[in-house]
């Protein structure tokens, strides 16, 4: 740009020189290199000045012609210069325009820069203000720091002093440090030993887990062997009764054989006597015959003598002949007699022989029978002792199984959908099918979230009343063995607690646990009688309604009582007491001696009519109270003098329900609140037991106080958690399942068998 602007200035001066000094031009000689200068694009002012001065110098040196030619040449050159100037001007104009545009752009940019600089300026001014503020605060800080510094200096002095003292203490600390290091090393050693112990404990833990698995498998094998033992016991008992039958029939056979043997021996004696007589007779007849023979011989010799000496008279001879004939006849008859007697004798002898053979045979048979009887008796005693041993083993195994399973066990029962409940909705309850959780797991979906639970047993809706009872029959046996047993049903209202405990009256297949337990108890009572056991049973039934106890058995009850209770006024005050043996007594409660299932069924019917039920939105016949059925069993073995005292508590709790859902008002609301309060007290007790807390709030409700020995004592307890499959109840079901899971995790005391060997019979104490 500088290069193009400079020629413009030079050309202006050049033109003025050319116009003003036209007379000068001819004098001036054109420079030898002018053409090249004009044709060049670069033409500076200095060049033009030099040209003019050359022309002035050359003014006087050339003549006019030359000057003209020079002038023409010079003009040509000037023209060229002019063209060049024009071109330069055009380019200048272009350049000018370009510059103007770029100037505009630059101006715009300048404006922008100015704007941004103004903003920046403002920012800067604010920063400056801020900085000035900072400065003032820094100055303040500085002042403060100076003050602090002073203080610090003072403290430095003090610190120095302190340092001196700390140096002293450092020495002592270093000693302590060395001690601490020693301690640290010992602690490290301890730590390593603890780590070792930890590893060992982990190993131990894994071995325990293995042991646990082994125990589980043992448990399975034990339960299998228990089952096989049960079967063996049943076959043994069968054999036993069969042997008994055989024994009695053999005894009968033996006695008939004995009688026939005695008859035979009597007959033999008679025959022996007869033979003896016959022998005597035979001897007598033989002697007579011999005598007669001798007589005949003597007579024949006499006859011969007479014949020789015919001097005798013919009459005498005839007489003698007659005599001899008579004697011969007698002799013949006697011979006949002897023959018949001999025949008789041989017959009698053969009969005697026969009888003696048969009596020997009978004796042998008798001996055999005796041996058989002895054998049977030893087998019988063996079988009896085997049965007793088997029974003992069964009890032991059963108790071991229960101990392994835990003394408080939880069974979950899901009832089927009832008519009117929505079966088309997504199912909220499912059951895992893996081998590990089969029959023990239940899964509940609530608000799209799945909750899994495991219990000792889960009964699906298809489970029958019998399937449920089979699982608890061992517990009933425990009550007969002298244990305290408690079975209770917990769950939301309408979830099937009463159905589980009582069942449907009048339909044998739908009988609940209580009637089935009674059947088992009375059947066992009957079968144990043959083993020498005698039992006494007593029952009591009560309900807890609005935190008050009501006696449900007839003798203590009248309609007036009910009215008074229902009005909440002067009701009988039943007091719950626990004795040191863990037995519970309720004062004034009716306790009835019972001998048969029929008697208890009658009492149960009476009690279920007396029980307070009401209609709620959730259940047509909702139990509004906790029902407690208690059976005390005392047994004595006549052979060993052993005594047992068992208790069976079967409890149907009132259903938990949400006030909002139940739609209760008035008295029903009061009932619901009372039910929920006692159930929450039950939860509190279970939670305290689960956490192994020192204080367990049993006394917070009548229910928990009554159940104290079952929950925290030495009894065998089973809880049923009843669940409704209806998805609209999933919230309540989740609460129930959570509570049941806590109960399942609880550890209560070891169950104790109430057994003694006193010979004197003692009556049960009545509550
Ligand atoms: N397993 C089952 N099979 C068939 N029906 C059942 C079953 N369980 C419960 N039911 C029926 O469901 C209904 C409610 O049962 P139930 O009265 O036993 O409930 P609940 O839990 O005792 O209620 P609440 O606490 O209100 O007394 C009854 O009609 C009962 O017959």
From TrEMBL:
<dbReference type="GO" id="GO:0005874">
    <property type="term" value="C:microtubule"/>
</dbReference>
<feature type="binding site">
    <location>
        <begin position="491"/>
        <end position="498"/>
    </location>
    <ligand>
        <name>ATP</name>
    </ligand>
</feature>
<dbReference type="Pfam" id="PF00225">
    <property type="entry name" value="Kinesin"/>
</dbReference>
<feature type="coiled-coil region">
    <location>
        <begin position="366"/>
        <end position="393"/>
    </location>
</feature>
<keyword id="KW-0505">Motor protein</keyword>
<keyword id="KW-0547">Nucleotide-binding</keyword>
<comment type="similarity">
    <text>Belongs to the TRAFAC class myosin-kinesin ATPase superfamily. Kinesin family. KIN-14 subfamily.</text>
</comment>
<keyword id="KW-0493">Microtubule</keyword>
<feature type="domain" description="Kinesin motor">
    <location>
        <begin position="407"/>
        <end position="746"/>
    </location>
</feature>
<dbReference type="GO" id="GO:0003777">
    <property type="term" value="F:microtubule motor activity"/>
</dbReference>
<protein>
    <recommendedName>
        <fullName>Kinesin-like protein</fullName>
    </recommendedName>
</protein>
<dbReference type="GO" id="GO:0005524">
    <property type="term" value="F:ATP binding"/>
</dbReference>
<dbReference type="InterPro" id="IPR036961">
    <property type="entry name" value="Kinesin_motor_dom_sf"/>
</dbReference>
<feature type="coiled-coil region">
    <location>
        <begin position="121"/>
        <end position="302"/>
    </location>
</feature>
<dbReference type="GO" id="GO:0008017">
    <property type="term" value="F:microtubule binding"/>
</dbReference>
<dbReference type="InterPro" id="IPR027640">
    <property type="entry name" value="Kinesin-like_fam"/>
</dbReference>
<dbReference type="InterPro" id="IPR019821">
    <property type="entry name" value="Kinesin_motor_CS"/>
</dbReference>
<dbReference type="GO" id="GO:0007018">
    <property type="term" value="P:microtubule-based movement"/>
</dbReference>
<feature type="region of interest" description="Disordered">
    <location>
        <begin position="1"/>
        <end position="39"/>
    </location>
</feature>
<keyword id="KW-0175">Coiled coil</keyword>
<dbReference type="InterPro" id="IPR027417">
    <property type="entry name" value="P-loop_NTPase"/>
</dbReference>
<keyword id="KW-0067">ATP-binding</keyword>
<dbReference type="InterPro" id="IPR001752">
    <property type="entry name" value="Kinesin_motor_dom"/>
</dbReference>
